[in-house]
Please model this.
Amino acid sequence: MHKKFQTIILPLILIGILIWSCGTKENKMLGATISTDLAKIAAGKKSFELLCSSCHNFKQDAIGPNLSELTHSVETIWIKNFIKGPQKMLVAKDERATELMKKYKALMPDFSNLSNQEIDALLAYLHTQKQAHSTKNDTLESIKDPIKDTVPFSGHVAQIEFFAQIPASQNEAPTARINKLACETNSGRLFVNDLRGFLYELKDGEPHLYLPIKNFKPNFIHQTGLGTGFGSFAFHPEFAENRLFYTTHTESESSKPADFILPDSVKVKFQWVVTEWKVEPDADKFSGSSRELMRFDFIANSHGVQEIAFNLNAKESDDDFGMLYIGLGDGGSVQLGYPKIADHHGTDIWASILRIDPMGNNSFNHNYGIPNNNPFAGSSTLKNEIWAYGFRNPNRFTWDGSGRMLASDIGQSNIEELNEVEPGKFYGWPNREGTFLFNPNGNLNNIYPLPEDDANLAVTYPILQYDHDEGPAISGGFVSKGELFRGKYIFGDISTGKVFMSDLTASIPFIEELKISFENKETTLTKMTGSNRVDLRFGLSCNGDIYILTKANGRIYKLRGF
Model:
């Protein structure tokens, strides 16, 4: 009986163990619980294109990592937790999150607003991307550490003081997506915008809602963590007389026919709109009318129209008085495999800074004017609106005391730069990143030494640059007019919250780090916000006060001594 038991029962036990172990292995297979439902995959693809494609693709690393094979190599629960709260995982010292932060120098936005069903659909789409596609081989050896020197400490600590808290426009962080602070020059009134569609006036440090754009623009859209929504605003230098100001915002791709359209083969994801608003006399809050000046198609939700501004140093007798400058990024076209959208050398509109007369009508749509001293005015082949071109994301510009126009430009994977902008000049993108060669058809993480025939491309190079050892995204600032640091350009890094300064009048300008102190205690903006993604911005009052905006907590601080 014993031998019979061994002969019959033991094989059955072994078969059972084998079946159990195979089942266990199957259950432990990465991505085994991810849906293969076609409807979910389609919904996930739509979410990916909307929320992720500006930073990720399936060909190579971009601003963030290549997501091909992600769900086949990383635990599903980890991916879900990271999508919902990357900051929480960093605080918890999660090893993978820490390594990602170390490599890419920027924290992914928090998408805790997504439902479990939306995340499941997104993962269903990602799970279909099983094999990384190869990119074209680069024939040159890339530069691994483009700027070896670190930014030195200036030896100065600037005092900052709390100025204002902007109201929450949603419950999840960032509760207020503050983006720009600027003044109306005639009265000195201060305004700040929230990307979710609100313009506030700051009165004695208290925000008062002035214009809720989304109440006036039914097709207005914004996406948390992305470059969409209410981008920028600028008051006309003669606002006291004409009561005109201007804004930029995003709308859905099919809202209206655009004035500037993408090639037929390229799918439109968003439209950016420049609007003129006319305020009724003596209105404390906006009351009046608006008209559309221009509308642009964009391929993605990044690198849009984040800045418009007037040269407030221009006198009424100057040619530049009342001319509106508009910064257009490349729309993420290079990352998405359409570099020709940016590489146009003046024949198209993206990746450029435009200059228009908002009160004129000699443009092709008759809604604005082309200044006759624009560099390409009257050309039949080059866009008459262009002032300068070759920018990836000209996110801020200003003018110094000598009249120089300064524009910060957010880079790809290596270099952040500040440019002195001159009419008709080419600033390199997408063939250059900073003072280095860039291959828009190759590995977008790499940069290379300049070629021997570099002069043939006629690139105007930046006056300042730093690499991603210091931070991944420049935040343009202003030249100090105050007693402290007079004449120094104050700026910083969006993600890390580092504050920098530079004397741009020096024969070779260089960058120094400016430490900050709050309530008489030296600190950092990451500590003050409790976030590894500070989302730093700078603002300027009419009397020259410089402000620091931290989107992570919706607060505004004033630099003392300016």
